[in-house]
Specification:
CATH architecture of the largest domain: Sandwich
Helix content: 10-25%
Order of helices and strands: HHEEEEEEEEHEEEEEEEEEEEEHEEEH
Strand content: 25-35%
Structural class: mainly beta
Shape: globular
Number of domains: 3
Mean pLDDT: 86
Radius of gyration: 25 Å
Largest sheet: 7 strands, mixed
CATH topology of the largest domain: Immunoglobulin-like
CATH class of the largest domain: Mainly Beta
Bound molecules: copper (II) ion
């Protein structure tokens, strides 16, 4: 094992050597050009000792990840350095699901920002242009780098003022899943959407590449029905819960073929809530966190994993069970959307007389919620302009009474195109729950329940 201290001092040594080899001037000397205190550890792999390993390339060094409902940030190579450009800006009319839009803040015209992909050993340079009306700074969560590149406004750097472009430059010595987010007035800026994911692929993978490699950022928002601005002052009652800034039915399905090795990288940058992410039809193991790989001997099977605020959990499984399988947060209020919050408890209340009287004033009025919320997501329910019903979307058999942080893993024997929704799963005859027949009830229960 190499310690973090050894890692950083050797990083500095390599950066120093790299700067000299490029005949760097004082002006463009990277921030990690401090004199080496020790030589690189002999335990480091060879590519770590090379000042400039070849920038990692998709296909050759890694299989690109998939950010459903999002994208991957483009880059180019300048003198062996991977160069990215992030623009922090307002994103008007971001759609969470059909029916709900809001004015958010994000990166490169998107909420959340595009996923950034690196390969272990890459030297990277990220330009951050601030087009917001407020100062900002960007933190690279989980990445071990020099202190001055850590992106904490005021502590590690000056805040990036509106109109300014800052340069972050570092070498990526780890692999795994990390996150980026505003680290200046976080409460406001993250609540408005300023987060994104970072994937660093291993240069010499010890495990086979997954066939499907999905990236999710979890978040939560307070958007009062009928308004267009997420409320950053909310501490408790979040009413829009998102996977990659979408809530069901706005979330795209995860498509996999039977036999595919599936990896899902889940980062949680919600303001206040952990999420217990649950999958149906499969069991998985947590193979990594934002702290690194979990050794194989320390992995145990799960069907639900809590992703704490400010953490990443990477899970892996083999898609071996054809069907449509929910992948969702198990906290039941996190699979609800706006209208499910702050209502009086009407369960069991007879509202007929009340409804009759209100209908005299408001024709067509109907109190809802006295048998639960199942009917409130239905197509017939009227909701305020620019707001979502509490729950769900139309399913193959009935209305699906889940919304928010919910999507569907679609496993099929044959997949023509991973990017195309294969539609609903056709259950083989006899393999779907249906009404029990009278004969069956008499045979097994001895009576027919009324
Ligand atoms: Cu949750």
């Amino acid at each position: 094992m190499i310690t973090r201290r050894e890692l950083l001092t050797s990083a500095a040594a390599i950066a120093g050597a790299a700067a000299l080899s490029r005949n760097a001037t004082a002006q463009d000397t990277p921030a990690i050009s401090a004199q080496p205190k020790s030589s690189p550890s002999p335990l480091q792999p060879s590519w770590m000792r090379a000042p400039h390993p070849e920038p990692g390339q998709p296909g050759k060094h890694y299989t690109p990840t998939v950010t459903l409902n999002g994208s991957t940030m483009p880059w180019k190579i300048v003198d062996g350095v991977k160069v990215f450009h992030m623009v922090c800006e307002e994103v008007r009319d971001h759609e969470f699901a059909p029916g709900l839009k809001a004015h958010c803040w994000g990166f490169n015209g998107q909420v959340h920002g595009p996923t950034i992909e690196f390969v272990e050993g890459d030297r990277v340079r990220i330009y951050v242009t601030n087009k917001l009306p407020a100062a900002t700074s960007i933190h690279w969560h989980g990445i071990i780098l020099p202190c001055g590149m850590d992106g904490v406004g005021g502590l590690s750097q000056k805040a990036i003022q509106p109109g300014e472009t800052f340069k972050y430059e570092f070498t990526v010595w780890q692999h795994g899943t990390f996150m980026y987010h505003s680290h200046h007035d976080e409460m406001t800026q993250m609540a408005l959407g300023m987060i994104g994911m970072i994937v660093v692929h291993p240069r010499e993978p010890k495990e086979p590449r997954p066939d499907r490699d999905f990236v999710y950022a979890l978040s939560e928002w307070k958007i009062a029905p009928g308004t267009m601005r997420p409320d950053p002052n909310e501490m408790v009652e979040f009413n829009v819960l998102t996977l990659n800034a979408k809530c069901y039915p706005g979330t795209a399905p995860l498509v996999a073929k039977t036999g595919d090795r599936v990896r899902i990288r889940i980062g949680n940058l919600s303001a206040m809530d952990h999420h217990s992410m649950h999958i149906h039809g499969h069991t998985f193991k947590v193979t990594a966190t934002d702290g690194g790989d979990v050794p194989e001997s320390a992995r145990w099977p799960e069907v639900t994993i809590i992703v704490p605020v400010g953490s990443v959990r990477t899970i892996e499984f083999t898609a071996d069970n054809p069907g449509d399988w929910p992948f969702h947060c198990h906290m039941s209020h996190h699979v609800m959307t706006q209208m499910g919050h702050g209502l009086p408890n009407l369960i069991g209340i007879d509202v007929e007389g009340y409804d009759k009287r209100v209908k005299k004033v408001v024709p067509g009025y109907m109190t809802m919620g006295q048998t639960g919320m199942g009917d409130m997501g239905d197509m017939g329910m009227k909701v305020p302009r620019n707001s979502l019903p509490m729950i769900g979307g139309v399913g193959p058999h009935d209305y699906i009474t889940m919304g928010g942080m919910f999507t569907v893993l679609k496993v099929r024997e044959q997949i023509e195109n991973y990017d195309k929704d294969p539609g609903w799963f056709e259950k083989p005859p006899g393999s779907r729950a249906t009404n029990a027949s009278e004969d069956e009830l008499k045979r097994d229960l001895g009576f027919v329940p009324a």
